[in-house]
Amino acid sequence: MLSNDDRYQSFGLVRDMLATPEIIRRFKVDQAADTAREIARVGRLLMTGEGSSRIFPAKNAIAHARRAGYRLQLHTEAGAQAQEYDLSGWAVFALSNSGRTAEVIRLFTALKAAGHAPRFSLTAFAGSKLEALADKGYVLTCGEEGAVAATKSVIEQALFYRALLEAAEGRPQLGSQLDELGAAVHESLTMPVDQEIVARIAAAKTVYWAGRNDGVAEELTLKTNEITRKNADYLEGTYALHGIEEVMSDDEVVIWIDPYAGSETKIRETLIEGVGLPVIAVAGRSTIFPTIRIPDCGDLSGYVQMAAGWNILVEVGLQLGINVDKPQRARKVGNEFVDETS
User: Fold this and answer.
1) Quick one: 266 exposed, middle or buried, by C-beta within 10 A (0-12, 13-18, 19+)?
2) Which CATH architecture group holds 183-319?
3) Are 193 and 292 in contact (CB under 8 A)?
């Protein structure tokens, strides 16, 4: 997307996305040091929330922690299902931009009534219902978003978790990486996208996002629904090679985030040759597919991949003539808590 073009800048969604590199650069990595010490003492953390407030922030943090061999026990689950779990001995952290998301409000209400501690929250606004139910609440600095689809808040939420877990593990690294990451995200957001690729995605009946279970492809699936109004599905890992090809067709498209090098030939045989549908890669290296090349940021590459996905979706939305700020049905607060006792 072009940062200085009125055709892009007229949308709040684009302005939110383009604000993200500076949000990354100025992020305060030590803001939750006391909470990190408490989580380290407990040793187990459940990260909960709904939709965009959980998918990338929690899953990307967990994937990084497991690759790095963290000692902390980490899990993520949506609020309603988490109410069915025995959370004894777990610290619980809830993310909700509005602080009014019904599922997490009900979970935290039940936990507080049971005397469960510790409970933490991160919201976009101070004084929320969720914050009142937490032992300690934090507030994002990115400000209100100008579109229904959450973007800059998702990245700040993910940075918050990343810094929190690094501090809890006693392995802080993020602070020295923020400038490089901000530059890479800006490059990924503003790089030109081949218009033939954009046209193919815009014409697709279904857009499949494939990739690791680290929150990137799954979150971009949700963003495809919200931004382009297209049918989309998330294919975890190499799921696309294990049966779904039976119902795929050549009027669909697969966008594969950083495909495993050892799987590329099989992907080509199964999907391109077997089904006839195009496969597009987003990666920090060349692949055998048409590839949107992005900067390689090592263990922070998920943030750069996300930015590339946003870039693609904005281009598709504009080509389709969609108001990318305002979906027809989706709401900023997906399921708002209503106090039925009042």
Assistant:
1) middle
2) 3-Layer(aba) Sandwich (3.40)
3) yes
Judge whether 6-176 and 183-319 match in fold: yes
- β-strands 253-257, 231-236 pairing: unpaired
Annotate 321-333 with b (16+ C-beta within 10 A) or e (fewer).
ebebbebeeeeee
* Maximal C-alpha separation, the chain: 60
315 phi and psi angles, rounded to 5 deg? -60, -40
Strands (E) across 79-219 are located at: 91-95, 119-123, 136-139, 206-211
Q: Does domain 6-176 have CATH number 3.40.718.10?
A: no
**Confidence (pTM):** 0.95
Go through 21-47 and write b for each residue having 16 or more CB atoms within 10 A of its CB, e for each that does not: bebbeebebebbeebbebbbebeebbb
Query: Can you list the positions of beta strands (E) in the chain?
Result: 44-49, 73-78, 91-95, 119-123, 136-139, 206-211, 231-236, 253-257, 279-283, 291-293
Query: For residue range 108-149, what is the model confidence (pLDDT) as tens digits?
Result: 999 999 999 999 999 999 999 999 999 999 999 999 999 988
Nearest in space to 184 (alpha carbons), one of 291, 23, 286, 304? 304
Query: Is 102:85 a contact under the CB 8 Å cutoff?
Result: no
By the 8 A CB rule, do 41 and 68 touch? no
List the 291-293 sheet strands across, edge first.
231-236, 206-211, 253-257, 279-283, 291-293
Q: Where are the chain's structural domains?
A: 6-176, 183-319
Residue 135: other Cβ atoms inside 10 A: 15
CA 119 to CA 243: how far, in whole Å? Answer: 41
Q: How far is CA 219 from the centre of its chain?
A: 5
Give the tens place of pLDDT for each residue, 287-330: 999 999 999 999 999 999 999 999 999 999 999 999 999 866 55
